[in-house]
Amino acid sequence: MSKVKLTVNGKAVAVDVEDRTLLVHLLRDHLNLTGTHVGCDTSQCGACVVHMDGRAVKSCTMLAGQADGANVTTIEGIAKGDELHPMQAAFRDNHGLQCGYCTPGMIMSAIDIVQRHGGQLDEATVRHELEGNICRCTGYHNIVKAVLDAAGRMKVAQAAE
Amino acid sequence: MYQTIYHRASSVDEAASLFAKGSEAKFLAGGQTLLPVMKQRLAAPSDVIDLGKIKELIGIEASGDTLTIKAATPHYDVATSDTAKKAIPALAYLASLIGDPAVRYRGTIGGSLANNDPAADYPAATLALGATIKTNKRTIAADDYFKGLFSTALEDGEIITQVSFPVPAKAGYAKFPHPASRFALTGVFVAQTKSGEIRVAATGASQSGVMRVPAIEAALKANWSPSAIDSVSISASGLLSDIHGSSDYRANLVKVMAQRAVAAAA
């Protein structure tokens, strides 16, 4: 057992876990943050994507110990109270989800894509950069629409700040 | 995953001494291969020694005619580094094709080379550019480093610290990715060194891992152009054959990817 100390959604936490614990299980089983999903458990589907120190990573492919000292943001940490993050709002408005299983990972990856590309996003880039996130329902069409829509909203939100 | 003990090393020396103390220790770099293998219970190290936070192992430097990438530098940093893009654009491009964005944030060049997956990208650039692999014990020339499927010249407990790439006159990389995993069904890196030597390396094709392609090197030596490769014949013998592509298909891909790499070379 080891004590892992990290910041999750702005809150400092310290958790005793077995050394073999994956970050996703620390989040889900120890902190009850079950918005982050385990889909394939083989690093391919991206349902487990969270942000660690500002980078979108697959939390099923990291030991909890590797996140010691890090700043982690999960799907639960992006809305401001009742106000959805622009990416969440865009997914809702564009019907970017059906069953919703992949959605937390899609949204966390999508925010990272927008942050990296700023206003330079086009459809081809979004499709290419979402290759680490698999959706079995939507055919991706509305997901891509939502990401492009959110890219515009995030730019406006940033300009307003 | 079986039980293991996680250690975070703060220096290369500390990592080496932790390794020596473990009964069956393994080094962890980005973990994008080792952790999936441990989850499948195909590996059960007694101790996992994390190299990912060792400051002396992270960074990209260019000096004179050499680009040096420290071993724990993630693919994303190489792909987006102005230094790397300026010195060897084909290498930065190669890094941008590895896995997916989340994998590129975590995976490292040292991890890729230590693992030597037969379909990994970095081995192709390392061999074609004639890079030098520096470890905590010695330096190893790329020509002496790759020893076949998942095997290298590294000794037990040896840690790659950095890889130095001679800046070429021209280089290019082209890969036909597996559509799901993004590993190379076949990828070819072509390089013309500043002394005029032509070196071509293919990954994803051979049963023994990354390989030089002498027939294409000879053709490009005579005439550096995609069409020079038209008449080259690549033998399918010894090439990988699986549900994704037969050995004949891969033999053809070696040619086609080499032609695309030459066309893209800068």
From TrEMBL, chain A:
GO molecular function: 2 iron, 2 sulfur cluster binding; metal ion binding; oxidoreductase activity
Organism: Bradyrhizobium neotropicale
Lineage: Bacteria, Pseudomonadati, Pseudomonadota, Alphaproteobacteria, Hyphomicrobiales
Domain 2Fe-2S ferredoxin-type: 2-78
Keyword flag Nucleotide-binding: no
Domain of life: Bacteria
Keywords: 2Fe-2S, Iron, Iron-sulfur, Metal-binding, Oxidoreductase
Identification of the protein by name: Carbon monoxide dehydrogenase
Gene3D superfamilies documented for this protein: 3.10.20.30, [2Fe-2S]-binding domain (1.10.150.120)
UniProtKB/TrEMBL annotation, chain B:
A Pfam family: FAD_binding_5
Domain named FAD-binding PCMH-type: residues: 1-170
Classification via SMART domains: CO_deh_flav_C
InterPro entries in the cross-refs: CO_DH_flav_C, CO_DH_flav_C_dom_sf, Diverse_Substr_Oxidored, FAD-bd_PCMH, FAD-bd_PCMH-like_sf, FAD-bd_PCMH_sub1, FAD-bd_PCMH_sub2, Mopterin_DH_FAD-bd
GO molecular function term, any single one: oxidoreductase activity
Gene3D superfamilies: 3.30.465.10, CO dehydrogenase flavoprotein, C-terminal domain, Uridine Diphospho-n-acetylenolpyruvylglucosamine Reductase, domain 2
UniProt keyword list: FAD, Flavoprotein, Oxidoreductase
Keyword flag Aminoacyl-tRNA synthetase: no
Superkingdom of the organism of origin: Bacteria
PANTHER family per the UniProt record, alphabetical: XANTHINE DEHYDROGENASE SUBUNIT C-RELATED
Protein name (Swiss-Prot/TrEMBL): Carbon monoxide dehydrogenase
Organism from which the protein derives: Bradyrhizobium neotropicale
